Amino acid sequence: MHANLGIVHFWAQADAVNRSVAVLLVVLSVVSWYVMLGKLAVYARTRRCHKRALEAFWSAANLPAAIEAIRREDRTGILASLAVTGANTAELQRENAACSIGAGVSASEAVTRSLRSQIVESQARIESGLTFLASVGSTAPFIGLFGTVWGIYHALVGLSGATQVVLDKVAGPVGEALIMTAAGLFVAIPAVLAYNAFTRANRLTLAHLDGFAHDLHAYLVTGRRGRPGDKLVELDAARGARTA
To answer: Residue 187 and residue 34: Cα distance in Å, rounded?
Structure first.
């Protein structure tokens, strides 16, 4: 009898509900692993290229050369898009401030606004997929538990007409139904661990992005790179809005 028990036997004896739950867990597992491996590759590429991109930007002779250098080195496009946005805003502010609706806005405020908007867009791009991982990590155990409860109910209903019920006839179907709970945990645990790891990596990336935005703002407005002791109030407010 024990040779007939297992996943194959459970699948053969399962009804449409249990099979649907099993297929759903398989799909969630495949998609979550796809998201995790994709984001892992992105973070590995980010760590390699961002340091080189910043060094290339600040070592350039002028702003156009710096923009070209950071575009060449930053394969993720996160730092490059921030530099391009800030430079374009500063240039437009100098050329069109007198004839636009933003004439009363200072160059510092205009650059700050554009950098803040770009940081928000970059944050949304960096955090893509994390909501899915969090959802999988929180719901997969309950999906598996539902499959277990339904499997036990289905097994007991199948035994309801028997005149004599022995332990082997109950323990086998119940044990097979518990496979669904284990499957739910197998899907959820990697998703939760990956979510926590990627959230920490995102904080580090956004901290570097904020630092570059501060230095870029100081350079575009004053012509020099910001000092470590300086504080950009507007960008600090944007950081606070992200963590709220």
So the answer is: 13
The per-residue pLDDT for range 44-80, each reduced to its tens digit, is 888 778 888 888 888 888 888 888 888 888 888 888 8
Please give the C-alpha separations between residue 15 and each of 20, 82, 111, 181, in angstroms, as whole numbers: 9, 54, 61, 17
CA 91 to chain CA mean position, Å: 34
Q: Specify whether the CB–CB gap between 57 and 69 falls below 8 A.
A: yes
Question: What DSSP element (H or E) covers 155?
Answer: helix 130-158
Residue 42 pLDDT class (50, 70, 90 cuts): confident
Count the residues in the chain: 244
What would you report as the CA-atom Rg of the chain, rounded to the nearest whole angstrom? Answer: 28
Least confident of 94-103, 165-174, 190-199, 206-215: 94-103
Q: How far apart are CA 154 and CA 151, in angstroms?
A: 5
d(CA 122, CA 144): 35
Per-residue DSSP letters for 4-61? G-SHHHHHHH--HHHHHHHHHHHHHHHHHHHHHHHHHHHHHHHHHHHHHHHHHHHTSS
pLDDT in tens, 157-169: 766 665 565 555 6
